[in-house]
Design a protein that fits this description.
With about 675 residues, the chain is α/β, with parallel strands linked by helices. It has 32 helices and nine strands. Strand 8 and strand 9 form a beta hairpin. The longest helix is centred in the middle third of the chain and has 20 residues. It is elongated, with a radius of gyration of 30 Å. It starts with a helix and ends in a 5-residue tail after the last helix.
Length: about 675
């Protein structure tokens, strides 16, 4: 046969390019041919075949392939080290903790001075063995040792100009960052790995980096972007035969669909994941699928079946020693117990989880929020208030670790339910002024971070609430603050004399009116002449309750929420004195927060003598592209953020859009934001 080193190089290239089936066949054939000619090379081919099988999710086949005892001359070599580590990997994937521990102990004895031997005496087999060892640390949630190994591997790969090992190490470091919930860092490592892998057409690494970027998007709250990324990664995993990756991306597609409200498709993804995981007996993915199904079924009201899946996940996690997965299963068990009115059990589980120092931040604030909800349900008001505040503080502390502004904006959506729960709690307990301050705190913080003036200490921001009456007095107008939620929405009307609170319909009803009315405007229909019902209904819902508080032709400052951020309030149809646009009764300005309004000084702006409602095409985004030289997508992203922050106003007609700076934006451009 051809020289073993040449064949091995061919198999290695097939593995790099993601042709797993061809790599398996060549490695298997070479191992068989060399078994009686060169036992060391025969075992090297057996090891590379085992790595192929691991990527295909065939853990039992790996153990069978490596079960034969090594000849004595290989018993203390790098061949023995990689064999033992790959066995430990397969045992861990199958959830066989004791067998995995024995294999790891043997690997430690074989490695001499452990990780240091890799740096002092690197070899291809040793590099591969320690890469697998790093994965074992990942599976055991030992992120410190995993990070050390992957960084050492990266250094060696750089020194040896080994682009594949470099890309692989960068990819693995992105996984460590994801597990640590350092999402900016994870995105950077994934994108770096992607660039390196493109140079050598390493399809498997490209597929994995695509999935890792999608997971970072998911955790940051960009569920649509995550879904698209997971779909692409899953298709590529199927194409190259990466069975474990396919399960992972398929399950994560379900998570994204669930967060987007497509529960039926999410369930299909979860069940397909569980079917594949059961076939391959992959403990990690069995747990992931059972936990996801338990959450879905709980949402759908099938409590008994949800409990069955949660118990299965908990049993597998405990048997395989996966502490992080065990915490996820326990959290779900607490939610199920709460639904079953087993309040003491739910409280005990949550209290134990909260006291666990190893709990990851994204689960901690969910646990604290669930504790708050439990105490609220049992009328333990002080404890409920304490845990709501703690959960929001924990969330904001994690959010502060994200440095990229484009990441912070979607990440904030993760706390929507948490904030809604606390606002609802405060309203129920007649603390509507306090609810308003908490509502504005989150909105103001987003803008302050964008301007680079936010305090890194979230708790410090709590000590300086906005004097809302003084703000309204300074503005010589009325401030309307909206908060949309599923069951009921809220409106605060603030004047110089006081704050008035109103309950509004749930967000679905409001959203439907907004969608219908915007469609009429986009279709260039004469909403005034045709007396569109949705324009009237929106006025009656959103403005009419406060009508007596708003003097005619006075300034009104709108702080919208949800779909109201895209609604042009000036176009609402007002009754009285003949049907007319609301712009004829008030001077309307959008803003993003009370804190921003408190920093606004209207006396620095000349009063506008005439008002004009523009629904047309003074300038298009295409023209903005021509003027700025920026991409259309970049223009759209910037304009959306500016509009949501109350720094730009937009008026639409058909496909055409007019954007202009608000007075607040002009003041910010002219000088620093006041304190």
């Amino acid at each position: 046969m051809t020289h073993p080193e040449t064949v091995y190089s061919t198999v290695d290239k097939l593995l790099i390019h993601g042709d797993l089936d061809a790599a398996h066949k060549k490695a298997q054939l070479a191992s068989a041919q060399l078994s009686s000619l060169n036992v060391e090379w025969a075992w090297k081919f057996r090891l590379i075949d085992a790595r192929v099988l691991l990527r295909e999710g065939k853990n039992k086949e790996v153990l069978t392939l490596l079960s034969e005892a090594l000849p004595s001359q290989l018993a203390t070599t790098d061949v023995a080290l990689e064999r033992t580590v790959l066995q430990a990997w397969a045992y861990t994937s199958l959830g066989l903790r004791e067998e995995a521990n024995r294999a790891l102990l043997q690997a430690q004895l074989l490695s001499g001075s452990s990780e240091q031997s890799l740096e002092n005496n690197p070899s291809p087999l040793k590099n591969q063995a320690f890469n697998a060892w790093g994965h074992l640390y990942l599976q055991r949630a030992d992120l410190i040792h995993a990070d050390e190994i992957f960084r050492r591997n990266l250094k060696i790969a750089h020194n040896q100009n080994d682009l594949y090992q470099q890309a692989l190490s960068e990819l693995n470091l992105s996984v460590v960052a994801l597990r640590r919930e350092r999402f900016d860092e994870a995105l950077d490592w994934s994108q770096t790995a992607d660039r390196t892998a493109q140079n050598i057409d390493a399809r498997s690494i490209l597929e994995k980096s695509q999935g890792n970027i999608a997971w970072a998007d998911y955790m940051l709250g960009n569920f649509e972007g995550a879904l698209a990324g997971f779909r692409k990664a899953e298709q590529e995993a199927v194409s190259i035969g990466e069975a474990y990756d396919r399960m992972l991306w398929l399950n994560n597609m379900g998570l994204s669909l669930y967060r987007l409200g497509n529960l039926q498709e999410a369930g299909i993804c979860y069940r397909n994941t569980l079917r594949i995981a059961d076939t391959s007996q992959d403990a990690e993915m069995q747990i992931e699928a059972h936990v996801a199904l338990a959450e879905l079924l709980l949402q759908l009201g099938d409590i008994d079946l949800s409990a069955q899946h949660a118990e299965k996940a908990l049993a597998i996690a405990r048997f395989s020693g996966r502490s992080s997965d065990e915490m996820d299963a326990l959290f779900l068990k607490s939610l199920i117990a709460d639904h079953q009115k087993r309040t003491d059990e739910a409280t005990q589980i949550l209290t134990n989880l909260e006291s666990n120092s190893t709990i990851r931040p994204s689960l901690r604030w969910q646990v604290e929020g669930a504790l708050a909800n439990l105490y609220a349900e049992t009328d333990q008001t002080d404890l409920a208030d304490k845990w709501y505040r703690q959960s929001i503080t924990t969330f904001q502390t994690q959010r502060a670790t994200i440095k990229k502004e484009e990441s912070k904006l979607p990440f904030s959506t993760n706390a929507d339910q948490l904030n809604d729960d606390y606002i609802h709690f405060l309203v129920d307990h007649k603390k509507t002024d306090e609810a308003l301050q908490w509502l504005d705190l989150g909105r103001a913080r987003t803008l302050e971070e964008g301007l680079g003036i936010a305090s890194t200490d979230f708790s410090a921001a709590l000590k300086h609430p906005v004097d809302v009456r003084a703000t309204a007095r300074k503005l010589h107008g009325t401030i309307l603050v909206y908060s949309l939620a599923p069951s009921e929405s809220y409106l605060w009307a603030i004047t110089s004399s006081g704050t008035h609170f109103f309950k509004l319909p749930g967000q679905d009803k409001i959203n439907e009116h907004v969608k219908n009315y915007q469609r009429a405007i986009l279709d260039s229909k004469d909403t005034l002449s045709n007396a569109y019902a949705d324009g009237l209904d929106l006025y009656n819902i959103l403005v009419e309750p406060t009508q007596s508080l708003i003097p005619k032709n006075s300034p009104v400052f709108i702080i919208p929420d949800g779909s109201l951020s895209t609604l042009n309030f000036e176009t609402l149809l007002a009754p009285g004195g003949g049907l007319h646009y609301w712009i004829e009764d008030a001077t309307i300005t959008n803003a993003s927060s009370l804190k921003l309004l408190a920093a606004f000084h209207p006396e620095t702006h000349a009063k506008t003598q005439k008002k004009l409602l523009l629904i047309g095409n003074p300038i298009t985004t295409t023209q903005l592209v021509a003027v700025t030289g920026l991409a259309l997508g970049t223009i759209g992203d910037h304009l959306r953020v500016l509009a949501d922050a109350g720094l730009a106003e937009r008026h639409r007609s058909g496909a055409h859009v007019l954007y202009h700076a608000t007075p607040i934006a002009r003041q910010l451009l002219g000088g620093p934001l006041g304190s």
